[in-house]
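Researcher: Last one for today. Full complex below.
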Amino acid sequence: MKIKNLLIPIAAGILLAAPALHAETAYVSNEKDDTVSIIDLNTMKVTDTLNVGERPRGILFSKDYTKLYICASDSDTVQVMDLKTKQIIKELPSGEDPEQFALHPNDRHLYISNEDDALVTIVDTETSEVLAQIDVGVEPEGMAVSPDGKIAVNTSETTNMVHWIDTTTYQLIDNTLVDQRPRHVEFSKDSKILWASSEIGGTVSVINVNDRKIFKKISFKIKGVHPDKIQPVGVKLSDDGRYAFVALGPSNHIAVVNANTYEVEDYILVGRRVWHMDFNEDQSLLLSTNGISGDVSVIDISKMKAIKSIKVGRYPWGVIVKP
Amino acid sequence: MQFNSKRNKLTAAILLWAATSSVSANIEVEISYLQQEIDNGPVLSNILPEPEDAGLKGAELAIQDSNTTGRFLKHNYQLNSFLSGSQEQLLEKAQEQYTQGVRFFVVNTSEQTLQLIIKSLAKDALFFNAGSRTDQLRTETCLPNLLHTIPSRSMLNDGLAQWLKTKRLQKVLMITGSEPNDKAYSAAFKRAAKRFGLKIVAEKQWSFDTDLRRTAQKEMPLFTQQRDYDVVFVADERGDFGEYVLYNTWLPRPVVGTQGLSPVTWHRVVEQHGAAQLQSRFEKLSERWMNSKDYASWAAIRSVAEAVTRTNENDATTVTNYIRSEAFELAGFKGRKLSYREWNGQLRQPIPLIHPRSLVSQSPQEGFLHPTNELDTLGFDQKEINCSNINK
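Model: Here's the assembly. Have a good evening.
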């Protein structure tokens, strides 16, 4: 009894000391509020809400985490925010209706999908120069650059293709037909495998980057949920190579896929219409944006369970974590 | 600049073609679009007329979408569109097109014209009904080479009735216009009311011929005088008097049906599930809002293109078989994959319930279950039809 009482203050002391060590923050774009919410991951509370351009969707950090790039879709620009001052310091010529983008490992070239114009625009973030515009399919959406920097891929939602772009020549080198409405693409760390989700098709295609052919198609089944409501969007791979997490939209679940066997191991219940995700730095937590419930779910990876939901703005779209 | 970039693209396309032509040939897909201009006669609420190219612009957008996709596969889509008020002219055009080798027809006409066109051509042509909501086409005269992208009156009214049931608006006062289409719309609602357990407390026929813009406030309350009802249903497809029922009823009740809260195929207010992108592409092309007829034509051509993309073939039999197979799925910006009912060729689709400035709901409503597909709670199910001449 006495021992127990002694232990509590010590534990509390450790917990209180923790925030000083790790002040991780999550940034969430709220599509229908024209804002970005900032969440302190220690307190799990929104600490700030920043006004940004219209219909913010894709967001990402510069390599050194000093800048935040925001696709302000309805403002037809990519905004650059200085994270120290929280001021927009630059607007990049993104082409019309930028939705998603990816930063080349060189930390300079931004690959942007222009949803209304069937284009991918490549912008130099330092000079604000448009390096190239590449014709792709109808409604370009997902963007990714391989970690080795050689290839960029884009998905087109209505054309149902993955388009492969050579990052040295800016030429389209191939197209892979996938299931209906491809949304998100994610490279494996070694740049050898590409994961592509198909929202309406209800599948995730796993593609060999070498021959650009699908070698595995993953489908999902959740008890009590109609198959049509299982709509894969965001995909996130864990650094240890064990898991792929797939956000399943209006089914309100995230699938846990074994990244080696491609078998679905578990489904995690989160908020309503889950789209995009990101890990914290040590990958003990996974955060997801839930558009309809207007919140972010925090998942404890060791338990594979949502442990907290945090209210943000209207229709949260993207989430990224700054260590 | 524009010219230059076009030329560059062309050069690139030629080079690409030259480099790979030995591997696979280009595929050309020709699609005929036939639209009958139907004169609905003078109407009282003539302030906001329907656009005359309703349907055509949807077809044009679908061709544009399909060609953007097609250029990666060397598939090319061409639209031959004909608009006419004359049944004979449309029939002639259809035959001429068939003789020239066209096998895909998107038909936005009356039911009668559609039937005549189909009868006049050989059975190896594939037809999409993108204009007629007639239930009879889906229940009695189903044809293996006829698909319907526009929902039937029953689908629309089932969608509406499910919502009324969900909202517990059970007692319905019905007002029906004098046109045959209005009566058909009412009949579909009555069927839906029976299916989903709504009570029709009174049925009234609209036959007034005063100018309601001036006297609605006086006439309508008396016309809707009835002891009790939860909701007023209006069947006035051409928009003659229906707009004047709202806010003028004896009891202050919501109005649903062809006016007020309406079940539709498509409307500008639909923007979820990526629809915002389709809407903005359409507005860029047409400088107006996309409507139900546009959507039906769009879906028809996108279905052909989807089949051509997946099969790499352009002959009508392969395309028809693929569209009617289980493998077929169409992403139609309605939040679920769309496919065709094998028993009558109707495109399964959610039904948006709208008022002119917002989306109120989308049917099927939650809780209306079906053993195979909840979308089949809308419209005639397999067991409810009488089609004898369908193969499957």
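Chain B touches chain A at residues 9, 65, 68-69, 71-73, 274, 277, 280-281, 284, 309-310, 329-331, 335-337, 373-374 (CB under 8 Å). Confidence is low (pLDDT under 50) at residues 1-23 of chain B.
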